[in-house]
């Protein structure tokens, strides 16, 4: 169970893994995620989106960025290794239906979980345009997959090393004005989702975001993943992960994500020493 | 002359607040026999009426007094499957020991025969000396039963169903089995090796335990029954969903549900700083809202994790507090403070969103409410700010809606608890039974266990008719 079937490095710090998980592959829908845990008693539970699944083969695909200790450890796993604990599919699936014109916005690693939604939206008969952004050319992932699926793909980088030199909000604003989408889906770093959601707000466009809070159980038991949506407390793992981007209390969410920052930085530093990775490389 | 009550030996408070090991060390062999001799072997056995599973208390105590510990535990096991757990966590003072004649004679319930402590001793003795009999498994029936969850309700249901000869598969959402016994109740009150031992017994009986499997998401109950060939299902999914108070500031950094706080420490082993990857929040002044066992566990865990000051904030007074008496006493010894007749109004934070205070209002006790306890009434104008950097909310749980939401035909009451037939624990969906917190709301280990057994009995009957 949970054997790694294939592994690729998509960029300096992003990896794609196909993992055997028959039941999850059969049950999952776009927008859902898994929680994995490894390393015996002391390992952490972390959520990762199911980027793709093959129900016939009985496998799921995860695409993750090595940002901290657990994701770094996962990156060291090779084909044939097994992941001790894998739970899913969790969360509500994306509300995929025919909206008409859809714009999907992905930032950094967010492009990976966005991909199945782009596929789903296309299959549901929508016209889909994609805006994908990264800090620089090396961090850009899945451009080919997106180009093969969406009607148009706009690539931006922060430093202009590839595509247009801009933040995703710039082309998004233009599309809001000229293309007038019926629905916008945004997945990326929280700060980017915040500003992208603010961009669509004046146009009153239905905006879906996928929140990546800190989680433990992922089943609605602990309340650690809670966010404020339209003034009410919601649990991302069971009520989400997708919410109306205009209702999210972004500032509170951003603060809560930093709850353990100093401790994670310590652990991150430790794991770099162990993995012989130079600071800044991953 | 009267035999004095045998006090439970414990780790000294100043030592135990710096470790996670069990507080109560347990009676010695001579102590347990002396305590057992305090029992008068009453003809009418009033204590039995106080035990939710009607253990033959005088009989097992008599054997304990004679030093026949293995026989003693066999008597208990006819009614209860988990004596080393219930002996530790039952609220004895409101169950068996409440009715004890010895306590009545002294007009002091604390003087009752220490039924729970004797139960704990004989069960531990049998386990440690490997005197337990592995329960007999019935002839294979060819029937398959799915058990959802691995808490006390599910453990006892699984054992009895296996005894009935059915194939039993348990499904647990988390990466570790045991339910609240593992992720909620801390090590210092219930060593995890005891829970593991009970689960190993199930495995030895041939029960399969599948972890990382969320019924309703990984697969629905209807799939288990229609596609995977399960003839019946027992649901012991527990309480779940922590309640919050809907007051201002509840989502600031440093506000936790007791579930999260305890899960980090117990399940994820975050107390092992440097080893565990799951981080802990650095707390110095902690307020715990609530007055039940969960609040005590959270407060005492906070102390052990290094908080200098921990205060239980409770709306009523000590008399109304639902926590086990022993836990309250232990908490006090460990330096946990109690602020009675206070209710929280809002939580404040600094510019970084980190908790820096709580506004509390003073209450007085009014008329008894639906629960029979006098209800707290806020005194207008008595609001006051207090300094805290951490808030733990322990005011109970709502029932987990996942199974209801993914299973057609299961009906729940207003509070989301499954509606079951009282005699059989069958839900409104044929072949699906339920017990424990998902039916009772937040209850107790012994009640959950009792329902698991009741359901298993009815399921064994039902499976024969198929
Ligand atoms: C529903 C959901 C789906 C997700 N899907 C993906 C995915 O498909 N691919 C992917 O690479 N990541 C995804 N994430 C984020 C992923 O869970 C975190 O990157 C991971 O938990 C980090 O663990 P770590 O131990 O390696 O790092 P840590 O040491 O725990 O953290 C390192 C850094 O990451 C930040 N961080 C910690 N937890 C999270 C979190 N849950 N979300 C965002 N940042 C966090 C910390 O603040 C810190 O800066 C998802 C998160 C959620 C909630
Ligand atoms: C901190 C704390 C302290 C307590 N102290 C005491 C005490 O001192 N004395 C006492 O008698 N009682 C105490 N209780 C209450 C007692 O623990 C519960 O009443 C009892 O555990 C309920 O048992 P259960 O079998 O119904 O469910 P639980 O023990 O809650 O177990 C349910 C299990 O089912 C799993 N599950 C849920 N949904 C699914 C699903 N869909 N698929 C698969 N698995 C699922 C959960 O992960 C969990 O492991 C305490 C509770 C807490 C939280
Ligand atoms: S199971 Fe609980 S109530 Fe029953 S005798 Fe034992 S301690 Fe008392
Ligand atoms: S009531 Fe007390 S003294 Fe009487 S039989 Fe029960 S435990 Fe013994
Ligand atoms: S992760 Fe625990 S409730 Fe969502």
TrEMBL record, chain A:
Q: Where is the FAD-binding FR-type domain?
A: 1-96
Concerning CDD domains, the annotation shows: DHOD_e_trans_like1
| Organism field | Sphaerochaeta associata
Name listed for the protein in its UniProt record: Sulfide/dihydroorotate dehydrogenase-like FAD/NAD-binding protein
**Mind telling me which NCBIfam families this protein's record contains?**
PRK06222.1 (NF004862)
């Amino acid at each position: 169970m949970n054997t790694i079937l294939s592994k690729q490095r998509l960029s300096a710090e992003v990896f794609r893994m196909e993992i055997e998980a028959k039941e999850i592959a059969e049950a999952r829908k776009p927008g859902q995620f898994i929680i994995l845990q490894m390393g015996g008693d002391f390992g952490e539970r972390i959520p990762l989106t199911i980027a793709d699944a093959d129900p016939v083969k009985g496998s799921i695909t995860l695409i993750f960025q090595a940002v901290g200790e657990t994701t770094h450890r996962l990156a060291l796993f090779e084909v044939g290794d097994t992941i001790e604990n894998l739970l899913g599919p969790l969360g509500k699936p994306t509300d995929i239906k025919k909206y008409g014109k859809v714009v999907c916005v992905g930032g950094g690693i967010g492009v990976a979980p966005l991909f199945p939604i782009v596929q789903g939206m296309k299959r549901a008969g929508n016209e889909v345009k994609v805006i994908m952004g990264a800090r620089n050319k090396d961090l850009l992932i899945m451009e080919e997959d997106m180009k093969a699926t969406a009607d148009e793909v706009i690539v931006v980088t922060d430093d202009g090393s590839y595509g247009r030199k801009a933040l995703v909000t710039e082309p998004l604003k233009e599309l809001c004005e000229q293309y007038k989408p019926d629905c916008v889906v945004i997945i990326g770093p929280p700060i980017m989702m915040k500003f992208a959601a603010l961009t669509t707000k004046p146009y009153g466009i239905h905006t879906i975001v996928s929140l990546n809070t800190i989680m433990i159980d992922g089943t609605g038991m602990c309340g650690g993943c809670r966010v404020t949506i339209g003034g009410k407390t919601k649990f991302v793992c069971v009520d989400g992960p997708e919410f109306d981007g205009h209702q999210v209390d972004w500032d509170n969410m951003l603060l809560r994500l930093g709850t353990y920052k100093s401790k994670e930085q310590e652990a991150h530093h430790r794991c770099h020493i162990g993995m012989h990775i130079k600071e800044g490389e991953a | 002359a009267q035999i004095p009550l045998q006090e439970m030996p414990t780790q000294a408070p100043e030592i135990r607040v710096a470790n996670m090991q069990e507080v109560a060390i347990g009676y010695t062999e001579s102590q347990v026999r002396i305590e057992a001799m305090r029992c008068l072997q009453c003809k009418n056995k009033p204590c039995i009426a106080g035990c939710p599973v009607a253990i033959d208390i005088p009989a097992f105590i008599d054997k304990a007094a004679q030093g026949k510990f293995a026989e003693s535990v066999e008597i208990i096991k006819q009614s209860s499957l988990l004596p080393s757990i219930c002996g530790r966590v039952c609220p004895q003072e409101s169950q068996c020991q409440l009715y004890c004649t010895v306590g009545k004679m002294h007009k002091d319930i604390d003087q009752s025969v220490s039924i729970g402590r004797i139960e704990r001793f004989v069960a531990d003795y049998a386990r440690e000396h490997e005197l337990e009999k592995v329960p007999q498994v019935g002839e294979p029936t060819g029937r398959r039963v799915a058990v959802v969850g691995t808490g006390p309700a599910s453990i006892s249901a699984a054992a009895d169903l296996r005894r009935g000869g059915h194939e039993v598969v348990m499904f647990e959402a988390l990466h570790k089995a045991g339910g609240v016994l593992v992720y909620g109740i801390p090590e210092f009150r219930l060593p995890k090796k005891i829970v593991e031992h009970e689960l190993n017994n199930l495995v030895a009986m041939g029960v399969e335990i599948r972890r990382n499997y969320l019924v309703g998401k990984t697969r629905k109950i209807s799939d288990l029954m229609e596609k995977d060939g399960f003839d019946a299902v027992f649901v012991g999914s527990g309480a779940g969903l922590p309640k919050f108070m809907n007051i201002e500031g509840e989502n600031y950094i440093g506000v936790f549900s007791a579930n999260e706080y305890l899960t980090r420490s117990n399940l994820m082993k975050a107390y092992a700083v440097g080893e565990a990857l799951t981080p802990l929040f650095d707390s110095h002044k902690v307020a715990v809202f609530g007055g039940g066992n969960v609040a005590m566990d959270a407060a005492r865990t906070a102390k052990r994790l290094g908080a200098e000051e921990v205060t239980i904030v409770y709306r009523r007074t000590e008399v109304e507090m639902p926590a086990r008496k022993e836990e309250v006493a232990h908490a006090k010894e460990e330096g946990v403070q109690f602020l009675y007749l206070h209710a929280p109004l809002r939580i404040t934070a600094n510019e970084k969103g980190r908790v820096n205070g709580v506004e509390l209002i003073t209450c007085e006790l009014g008329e008894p409410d639906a629960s029979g306890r006098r209800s707290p009434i806020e005194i207008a104008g008595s609001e006051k700010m207090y300094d805290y950097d951490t808030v733990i909310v322990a005011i109970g749980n709502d029932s987990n809606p996942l199974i209801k939401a993914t299973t057609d035909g299961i009906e729940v009451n207003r509070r989301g608890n499954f509606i079951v037939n009282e005699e059989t624990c069958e839900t409104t969906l044929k072949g699906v039974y339920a017990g424990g917190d998902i039916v009772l709301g937040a209850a107790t280990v012994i009640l959950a266990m009792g329902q698991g057994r009741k359901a298993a009995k009815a399921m064994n009957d039902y499976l024969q008719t198929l």
